[in-house]
Design goal:
heterodimer; A: 118 residues; mainly alpha; two-stranded antiparallel ribbon; 2 strands; elongated; B: 148 residues; alpha+beta; 4 strands
Chain lengths: 118, 148
């Protein structure tokens, strides 16, 4: 019997990604005035598609914050942080996190109903 | 992931808040001393500015962190502006030289105001990041209560 309802692992994984990504965005925002700073990000899409593509539940768990160049030219002080992009990423990440938690909560509610049998 | 690491986002935003607040303090100090011609080191006041550096914590270990995790920002130095001090003709001033010129601080009010504005905007951005983190944490904790 499968006691793990659908996508439980994926959603938990997604929460890991969003919390790590929040850390990267916070770091970028904290260093918005640091000359020469290179913005960081989590390779989120890559790890998600790997997750969705193969059935390997917790494999390939090298989620990491790394320097992410998005091809934009650096500012005059050598930093490539754009505060507008960081703020929109922050909101986007928050919404992804909210989606994942809502989905997890509804899965849990389903499971609870199934256990109670009502 | 230990539970202390769980809250490391707050530390990152806090370091940003603290750095920007220090910048505002330095700007306030520059503005307050825009006309100071005598300092402890002798000579007029020199404009100060902060040097920021990114902090990366090495080797915290454990999933999902790798070799270096972000640790926010740090003020590494308070440096004096080496640019030339302007000389103003003011023979009545007690610090005037024989020709009647007074060496004034190299504080430029417009520059300081722009600095103050960017510091305050960056402070707001950090505060916003901190607030988002709180929302995220609340949403996750709501799972324990059985739904957001």
């Amino acid at each position: 019997m499968n006691v793990n309802p659908g996508q439980f692992d994926t959603l938990t994984r997604l929460l890991d990604v969003t919390s790590l990504r929040h850390e990267a965005i916070s770091q970028n925002i904290a260093n918005v005035n640091t000359p020469g700073y290179q913005r960081r990000d989590v390779s989120f899409e890559a790890s998600l598609s790997r997750k969705l593509g193969g059935g390997e539940a917790r494999e390939g768990g090298e989620l990491a914050i790394s320097i992410a160049s998005d091809g934009r030219p650096p500012r005059a002080d050598g930093s490539n942080v754009d505060i507008d992009i960081e703020m929109s990423q922050l909101t986007r990440n928050l919404l992804v996190h909210q989606t994942a938690t809502e989905l997890l909560a509804s899965r849990m509610a389903t499971m609870r109903r199934a256990i109670r049998g009502t | 992931m230990t539970w202390m690491n769980l809250l490391s986002s707050t530390d990152i935003s806090a370091s940003g808040l603290s750095a920007e607040r220090q910048r505002m303090e330095v700007v306030a100090n520059n503005l307050a001393n825009a006309n100071t011609t005598r300092t402890a080191g002798g000579g007029p006041y020199r404009r100060q500015h902060l040097v920021f550096a990114a902090v990366l914590n090495e080797q915290q270990g454990g999933f999902p962190r790798s070799a270096s995790s972000p640790g926010g920002v740090r003020v590494v130095a308070v440096e004096e502006d080496p640019s030339a001090l302007p000389r103003v003709f003011n023979p009545g001033h007690p610090d005037a030289d024989e020709q009647g010129y007074v060496t004034m601080p190299n504080v430029k009010i417009p520059n300081e105001m722009v600095d103050l504005m960017t510091a305050s905007r960056a402070y707001e951005a950090n505060l916003r990041a901190l607030r988002s983190f709180r929302t995220m944490a609340e949403q996750t904790l709501a799972l324990l209560r059985g739904g957001p």
